[in-house]
Amino acid sequence: MKEWNRIGLRTRWVGAALSLQLVTMAVIPVASAAAFKDTKGNFAESAIDALHQQGVISGFANGTFKPNQSITRVEFFTLLNKVMGYTNADTPMFADVSSKSWFYEQVGIAVGSGYIQGEYQDGGKLSPTIPITRQEVASMLAKSLKLPLDNNAAVKLPYKDSAQVNSWRKSAVQSVVSAQLMAGMPDRTFRPAEAVSRAQVAAILKRVVDNYMGGTSAGSSGGNSSNGGGSALTYKPLNPITLNLNASAAQFLPTYVDAVLGTSVSKVAVTWPSIPTNEIGKFTYEGTLSGSTYKPKLIVFVVDPSAAGNGGNTGTPGTGTGTTSPPITINGPALSDVKISFSSLFSTIIVRSNDKVTSVMAGSDVMHYEGGNSFSLATAGLKLGQKITIKALDIQGKVIEQKDYIVQSTTNGN
């Protein structure tokens, strides 16, 4: 059975059959907003207005922007993810980032994009809601934009307080200053530990957009997204579908994607390219959302209905629910690696599996698909010595392997 990726070149698709947990700050168009009440005459007024029109930043319900208010770490991650168009997520390994937090996905994208690597210690605390500092912003910008870093010599910054810059961030500060993305203060200081304001971040990101993104943010579609003023707009991933060989695909494709803003869920129309079913295998396709730059992904299994064990069902049109596939024969272990990390705040479970496994359960919880045959779950309430049953399932939902693991103070491997 061949497995191909039809998004671009025909390359092997090595993922399991769960939708990627990719969450982005893509937006739905709304009418252009009026200027904020409190930004007239602000040094960053034009940058604030421009980014607002592009859907990168928003204000508060009372019509203000609060330009002098500091911005938190996760608010900055959200904005940078948006501007750079980042969507690839990885599992956050911080003791104070729960899977139930509104910012969990955005931290995951920051981890997956690599720009917070080395900034904070995995397994330690991220302190996500404290103000982000100028040197933190500089370091993350340098990594995101792949600015040249002078790591082979002692960096000498032209500021009176250069000694206060973290040694491992000096080269990044030098790079963003050279790139004219940030600058020092009139008193010839950089103030590396000072909190960054919303206006300052707007000015910095506008320079990023103008100098590196062709004048348009990667996630811009003329709409409105949220940073400190409200909840992040996210999209629910699509379930995979199964189609019979040579069947017509059109009637079974999802017709919408759920857009989630806080507690509000709305339907966004999605269109798909032509999806052939003349070849047995597992394929992935990108859809196009109405009024958004977000690209939903759909995994499609094409099976032979005459194969033993396949009932030949054709699925439920427009819901993303497809047919039942033939039983899958597993060669080798289905669960190749299980790691359980315990902490008093929350625990993480990471599982690698055989590429025929389409879902994994830890107890009664379905684990998140992370790509590359890897699944993860961040959970609270585990206890030392507790037994956790890990199950691997095929596309029919049949348990093809299960093992018990004991939660220990370190990591369990298998």
TrEMBL record:
Signal peptide, first to last residue: 1-33
The organism's taxonomic lineage, starting at the top: Bacteria, Bacillati, Bacillota, Bacilli, Bacillales
Keywords, in A-Z order: Signal
UniProt cross-references to Pfam families, sorted A to Z: Big_4, SLH
Domain SLH: 31-94, 95-155, 156-219
Name of this protein: SLH domain-containing protein
InterPro entries assigned to the protein according to its UniProt record, in alphabetical order: Big_4, Cell_Envelope_Struct_Comp, SLH_dom
